[in-house]
Amino acid sequence: MATATEADAMRRAIELASRALGSTSPNPVVGCVVLDAVGRVAGEGWHRRAGESHAEVDALRAAADAGHDVRGGTAVVTLEPCNHTGRTGPCSQALVEAGIARVVYAVADPNPTATGGAATLAAAGVETEGGLLADEAAAGNAAWLTSVLRGRPFVVWKYAATLDGRTAAADGTSRWITSAESRADVHRLRAEADAVVVGSGTLRADDPHLAVRGQPTPGRPVTQPLRVVVDTHATITPGARVLDDAAPTLVVVGEEADTRHLPGVDTVRLPGEKATGPTGDGKAGIAVHALLGALHDRGVRSVLLEGGATLAGAFLAAGAVDRVIGYLAPALLGAGPSALGDAGIATIAQVLRLDVTDVARLGPDLRITATPTVPATAPATEEN
Fold first, then answer.
1. If you placed Cys at 216, which of 135, 187, 291, 358 could pair as Cys (CB 3.0 to 4.6 Å)?
2. pTM across the whole model
């Protein structure tokens, strides 16, 4: 049974892991706290970037640098220590060699190439216990766990709207519906994501930049996400702001699109699918799961879907939204585009219900975070 000291150490390890959100893909975020034999904190660490030290090794090194003896101590870690050699060695073996007597972890490793660390530790005589604060640790590692279990990135749909659900006025103007505090928070979301995705409609209407500005989380280095433009017919122009060198950009086009006007631009051609919802016009757009598969193949484990209504509707219709974050301004427009387009819902019986997990005040605005009560789906395969 885990002790109160170990529970406190796990909360700290979860906080340490969160410092690397957006920086470790395709690896998980992991935090570790090492306690000495009498339960005092000897070292802390986290996995900062793919290819660099894992959290356990980072914490053991910090303890050694501080002159602390960890023999007979406890390692508290958010994910079961890995059991394989990749760009770094197995953490299970590193813990054994350091003389750690007990390992407490939150989430079992579902990755078949890395799992088995707990068994290796137990075989070496190390006491192990799993499941401590598992839900909290899994929530912090949702992107990586989704990629392993569903074979696609974790998708967060973010939108900003008035209380009556409008994202712009009737004449198309939209700057600024929400407050400076809300806009700063969006930059935090971008910094924590591997990719930011918009559609061609948003590109034409707003010419967004999509890069992270400033340092949205003090003390955390900024890693720019991949900017992804879904542009079936390659209507983007070479002068679009998203094509500057502030961050990498990928333009996703249809199989027949003419891209000769985009020399040097990173593009990928994907198959289309027709909108078949109750208000769909039957026009082909990029197949959502093909898009997510292509991003997953590039190491993307988390996606921030920023716009607009048509693309959001397509993702929801495909069952590919894992979290919704809405920024609601205390304002009314009465007319203008809505936050969500056709999502394949024809009747109230098909309504997509959400479970609200957080409500926060940002300046004058409300930020509402929710998850679909029906889990999002994995990509379709021939077997299912």
1. 187
2. 0.88
Domain ranges of the chain: 4-143, 151-372
Q: Is residue 210 marked as binding?
A: yes
> Where does residue 158 rank: exposed (0-12), middle (13-18), buried (19+ CB within 10 A)?
buried
In tens, the pLDDT along 3-12 reads 999 999 999 9
224-255 pLDDT per residue, tens:
999 999 999 999 999 999 999 999 999 999 99
Q: What is the pLDDT of residues 91-105, one digit of tens each?
A: 999 999 999 999 999
H or E, element range at 18: helix 4-18
Would the annotation count 168 as a binding residue? Answer: no
- Tell me which architecture the domain covering 4-143 has in CATH: 3-Layer(aba) Sandwich (3.40)
Given a cut of 90, is residue 215 above it in pLDDT?
no
Q: For residue 275, say whether it is annotated as part of any ligand binding site.
A: no
> Rounded to whole angstroms, what are the CA distances from 343 to 160, 191, 325?
18, 28, 17
Task: Let me know: does 344 contact 317? Beta carbons within 8 Å.
Answer: yes
Is 90:57 a contact under the CB 8 Å cutoff? no
DSSP string, 109-168: ---TTT--HHHHHHHTT-EEEE-TTHHHHHHHTHHHHHHHHHSS-EEEEEEEEETTSBSS
Whether residue 44 lies in the annotated active site:
no
- pLDDT tens per residue, range 115-126: 789 999 999 999
190 belongs to an annotated ligand binding site: yes
The answer to whether 206 is a known ligand-binding residue is yes
Torsion angle, alpha carbons of 7, 11, 16, 21, to 10: 130
CA 236 to the chain's CA centroid: 26
Topology adopted by domain 151-372: Dihydrofolate Reductase, subunit A (3.40.430)
The percentage of residues in the chain with a pLDDT greater than 70, rounded to a whole number, is: 92
Find where tokens 């579902």 sit: 110
The lowest-confidence range among 110-114, 139-143, 355-359 is: 110-114
Fold equal for 4-143 and 151-372: no
